[in-house]
Specification:
This protein is α+β, with helices and mostly antiparallel strands. Helices cover about 40% and strands about 20% of the residues. The chain has 5 helices and 4 strands. Strands 2-1-4-3 form a 4-stranded antiparallel β-sheet.
Length: about 170
């Protein structure tokens, strides 16, 4: 249920969630709870936390409406510590709501908290994301669509590729 909260209350609740977080193999992760909190307590239609793993932005926590709806304003803030980018925090404002200075300040503060968390106590989440990406690449999921070959004309294709003109 949506309950509009002030930025100060949202930040305090996120800090409380992170302080209470313990590594667990069972969902939801602290990132998922934070994304849900952002959607439930602000005028966000969607919220997502993406981690930068081996040059790819991998979604790790998504919350809010994932169905097609009238587009709102998208805001994205990098999750950085020093010069290292760990990922991004993205939200989509609900239709009819506009971006404000207060929203940008809140998102930057949340990204700062996430950066400290992901480089310290929450490092296990980055490690899990890295392992999941490696497994998906190894199993071929990340390669996308691979059409099946037509092996019936394989010999003919080899001859044609080699320049043999003896085909009928």
């Amino acid at each position: 249920m949506k309950t509009y909260r002030s930025p100060r209350n949202v930040v305090a609740e996120i800090e409380r969630l992170i302080a209470a977080d313990k590594p667990s193999p069972h969902p939801p992760s602290a990132l998922a709870r934070i994304a849900k909190l952002l959607c439930d307590s602000r005028n966000y239609q969607r919220a997502g936390i993406y981690l930068l793993i081996e040059g790819r932005e991998v979604p790790r926590a998504l919350s809010g409406s994932q169905t097609a709806s009238p587009p709102g304003t998208d805001l994205s803030v990098p999750i950085k510590i020093a010069s290292e980018t760990l990922g991004s925090l993205r939200v989509q404002l609900a239709p009819g709501h506009t971006s404000s200075f207060e929203e940008r300040v809140l998102l930057h503060k949340v990204a700062e908290i996430l950066a400290l968390y992901l480089s310290g106590k929450g490092k296990y989440l980055v490690r899990k994301a890295r392992e999941a990406l490696r497994e998906s690449v190894a199993s071929g999921e990340a390669r996308g669509y691979q059409p099946a070959s037509d092996k019936g004309n394989l010999a003919e294709a080899r001859l044609a590729a080699a320049g043999d003109k003896s085909r009928s």
